[in-house]
Amino acid sequence: KDEGSKDELTETPPKEEAEETGQQRRRRQTQDEEEQETSASDETSEDAKTAEPLRIVFNPPLLPSPLYLLVVEAEAPDAATLVEKCINQGLINAVMMKDGLATDAEVYRTASKLQMICRSKDVNFIIHSRLGAAANTLADGYQLAEQTFDSNVKVPQVRDFLEAVRSEADHGRLVIGAEVNSVDEAHAAHLQGADYVVLKHTTKVPEDVGDDWTEENYDPLSVLVDASQRTGSCKVIVTDEFCNQPGLTVNHVLTAGADGFQIPAKSFREMFLLQDAMSTSKEKPTLPSTGRLLGGIFLVAGSTVGAGIVALPLRMVNVGIVPMATSLVACWAYMVLTSLLLLEMCLWWGPRANISTMATNTLGERGRKLVSGLYILTYLTTLTAYMAEGTNLALPMLQAMGLGALPPYLVCALIVVTLGGTVYAGTRQTERLNGLCLVVAVVAYAILTTSVADFIRLGPLLSAFRWRETFPALPLMVVAFTFHNIVPSLLAYLGSARRVVTAIVIGSVIPLTLYMLWQMIIISVLSLYSANITDSYQLILIIQDAAGPIATFFAQVFSFFAIATSFLGVCLGCVDFTKDLLFREMPKEEEGEKQKKPSPRGSVNLRSIAVRAPWIKRLVALLTVLLPPYFIAVTCPQIFFVALEFSGVFRIILFGILPAVMVWIGRRQGYTSWLPGGDYTLGAVVLLAVMALTFARSSAAVAVLT
After folding, report:
1. Which end of the chain has fewer beta carbons closer than 10 Å to its terminal beta carbon, N or C?
2. Which region, left, alpha or beta, applies to residue 671 given φ > 0 means left and ψ of -120 to 50 means alpha?
3. Do 86 and 96 form a contact (C-beta atoms < 8 A)?
4. Distance separating alpha carbons of residues 599 and 259, to the nearest angstrom
C-alpha cells in the first residue's frame, strides 16, 4: 500500500526465504507425524486391518501460498463485481465475506452470489462470523471472529457443525480460521485444529515477558516469527494493519514466516480508481482540447434549451423581473451542483457508468430498479409534453401553408415518425438534424427578439415582487436546466473533470441568459394585456396582435424547433437506455439456467432474435419509447404543462435527492470525495430538493408526494 511496495502487490512476491524459515519447517513436522502414523499402522495385525470398516480420512486442504485473501462486505452492492474483477486479474486467490451491518437476507443473498463465482473460478470462499450462512451456502471455510474465539465456541465444535451439513466429498474443502491478537492465541488456535490464523496488529503484552516490556520495544517481525514457529502446520495470515506498521514491507513480512495477506476491499477499489484515472490521463494529450471543449459547451447548451423556454413565461407572468431572475439563477446553481455529484460518481466508475450503474453500485438491485423506473417516467412524461405542444405549434404553421385540414393525430404522427426515424437511423444522423434545428431556432430567436425589443418596459416589471408565485414554477425551472443524462458522455468526450466542469458552467450559462432575455420580452408583451394566458397558442395570438404576423411566425418557428432539438436529445437517450434495459447481457450462470428451461410451444424468444438481428433491438426500444407518449398526447392534447410538471418533480428526485444519497453511500464504501463540502453539501442538496417539492404546490408535486 506504500509507494515502495506497489509492484510487489501486483506481482507474486519472492518466497524462497519465507519458505525456508516457515513453510519447510512445517512440512518437516507434517512428514514426521505422517511417518509416526505409518509406523504405528504397520504394527497393526492384518486381521485387524481387514476387520476395520472403510473410513474417509479428513485432510485439511492446502491453501494457496502466499494467500491473498480479499475481505469484502456483505452489504456492499458491488461485492460480486469487485470479486470477479479481482479474480479475473489474478490479484487474489481467496475471498472472505464479512457481515458488517448487513441483514440476514443480505448476507445470504451476497454469500450465494460470491460462492457461485468462487466455485466457478476454483477460489476458496470463506465466511466471517456468520455460521448459519456458512452452513446454508456450503462455504469453503469459516473464520471465527476475535470475540468468538475468546469465548466457549472452539474450532472443533465449528468444524463438526459445518461437516454435519456437508457431504463427505466436500469435507476436504472445509477451512477453519481464527482471528488472534497474540502469539499465545495463535498457538491455542493451532492446538484446536485451526487451518490458519489471522494475526492482527496488536501491542498485547505476551505472557512470557518481564515487566520491562513496553510498546517502544515491540517488534512486529519478532511477534510474527514467534507465531510462525509455535503454530506448526497452521498458516499465519497478516492483516493490512499489520503490514502498514512503520518499517515493514511485503518481503519483510514473508521472510518472517507469513503465509499470506488479508486485503480489504477498499484497497482494491482505490487501486481500480487509480487505474481508471491513469488510463484517462493517458488519453488527454490526444484530445484536441479547444475544439472538444467548445463542442462540450454547445452540447450542454443544446441539451438544456427546450420546452422550458416555452412554458416558463406562462407560469411567471406576474412575478416581476427580480423574483424571476433570482429564482432562475438559484435553480441554475442547484442543477449545476447536482450535476457535479454525478460527475464525482463518474470519476469513481468511469465515463461508461450511467445513472443505473451508479444506483447498482450504491443502492443495490432495488435501487437500480427505482432509478430505472424514475428515469423512464421522467422522460416519457417529457416526450408526452413535447408531442402535445409540438402538435399545437405545428397546426397553425400548417394552416398558413394551406394544410389546415390535417387532423391533429396525423400531425403528431408525422412529427413522431420524422424525428423518431432520425433517431432510429443513428447518432450521426440525429446530431445533424439536431444541429439544423438548433440553427433554425437561434435564427428565429434573434429575429423575434429584434422585432419585439421595443415592447420591453422595465419600469412596471421592476416594481412587482410576487415571490410566492415563483414556487409553482419550480418544477418547470428544473426541466429548463436539466442536462444531467449527458454528464458521463461529457467525461468520456473531454477526458478530465476540470474540462467537464468548465463545459457545464459555461454551457448552462448560455440558456440561463437566453431564458432571462426571453422572459423579459414575453412578460413585457403580456403585461400589456389583462387576459389569463393558459397555453402557447394564446401567447402566439397576443404576439401577433402586438408585433405583427412576422413576429408571430418566428415565435412559432422558434418554439417548435426548440422543442424539436430537445425531443431528439431526449429520445436518443431514452432509446439507448431502454435498449440496454431490455437487452442487457445476462450473467453466464443466469443465461445457462434460462437455456435449460424449455420454452413454451409457440413462444418467441425476442432476446435470441435480437442477437441474430441487432436492428430489432433499436426498433423495439424506439417503439417502446414513442408509442405510449404518442397515444397520451393524442388523447390529451392540452397535457403539456401537466406533463412537464410531473417531469420536473421526477427530475428533482432523480437528479437531486438520489445522487446525494448515492454519493453519501459511495464515500462510506471507501471512494474518494471529490466535491468540496463533505456531508454538508449533500445535506443541503437533499434539503433544497425537499423544500422545492414542498413549496411547489403543483398538482404533480402533490400527487408524487402523496
Report:
1. C
2. beta
3. no
4. 51
Given a contact cutoff of 8 angstroms between Cβ atoms, the answer to whether 191 and 231 are in contact is no
CA dist 570 → 305, 422, 615 (Å): 12, 13, 20
Torsion 423-427-429-430 (CA) sign:
positive
The strand pairing partners of 95, in sequence order, are 70, 125
CB atoms within 10 A of CB 365: 11
Cis geometry, peptide bond prior to residue 460 (ω within 30 degrees of 0): no
Q: What is the pLDDT of residue 58?
A: 36
d(CA 523, CA 462): 12
* CA separation for the pair 40, 696 (Å, rounded): 87
d(CA 482, CA 479): 5
Cα distances (Å, whole numbers) of residue 319 to 470, 471, 520, 689: 7, 10, 11, 22
- For the beta carbon of residue 103, count every other beta carbon within 10 angstroms: 11
Whether 140 and 125 have beta carbons less than 8 Å apart is answered as yes
Burial (Cβ within 10 Å: 0-12, 13-18, ≥19) of residue 502? middle
Residue 262, number of CB atoms within 10 A of its CB = 24
The angle subtended at Cα 157 by Cα 151 and Cα 163, nearest 5°, is 145
Helical segments of 175-307, H only: 183-192, 220-230, 240-243, 250-255, 265-283, 289-304
Q: What is the DSSP letter of 143?
A: E
Q: Give the residue from 270, 275, 276 showing the smallest Cα distance to 488.
A: 276
Q: What's the chain's Rg over C-alpha atoms? A: 33
Measured over all CA atoms, what is the biggest interatomic distance in the chain, rounded to whole angstroms?
119
Residue pair 262/96 in contact by the 8 Å Cβ criterion: yes
- Please spell the DSSP secondary structure of 274-291, one letter per residue: HHHHHHHHHHGGGS-HHH
**Helix, strand, or coil (residue 371):** helix
Across-strand partners of 68?
261
Torsion, Cα 291 292 294 298, to 10 degrees, reads: 130
Output the CA–CA distances (angstroms, integers) from residue 410 to 60, 237, 407, 568, 625, in the order listed.
76, 73, 5, 19, 18
CA distances from 438 to 453, 477, 520, 559, 562 (A): 22, 21, 22, 11, 7
- The Cα–Cα gap between 563 and 389 comes to 8
Distance CA 663, CA 675 (A): 10
3-state secondary structure of 56: coil
pLDDT digits (tens, 9 = 90+) for 499-556: 889 989 998 998 898 888 888 877 777 766 655 666 666 677 777 776 677 777 888 8
pLDDT of amino acid 460: 61
Q: Which amino acid is at 264?
A: P
What is the per-residue pLDDT for 290? 45
Q: Which amino acid is at 120?
A: S
- Taking the C-alpha atoms of residue 654 and residue 645, their distance in angstroms, rounded to an integer, is 14
Residue 131 near residue 142 (C-beta atoms within 8 A)? yes
Pair 251, 14: CB distance under 8 Å = yes
Q: What is the pLDDT of residue 444?
A: 86
Specify the 3-state DSSP secondary structure of 111: helix
Please report the sign of the dihedral spanned by the C-alpha atoms of residue 628, residue 606, residue 358, residue 426: negative
439's grid cell: 440553427
Cα–Cα distance, 591 to 589 (Å, whole number): 5
The predicted pLDDT at position 682 comes to 93
Tell me what pLDDT residue 668 has. 84
pTM of the model: 0.59
Tell me the angle at which helices 678-695 and 640-652 cross, rounded to the nearest 10 degrees: 150
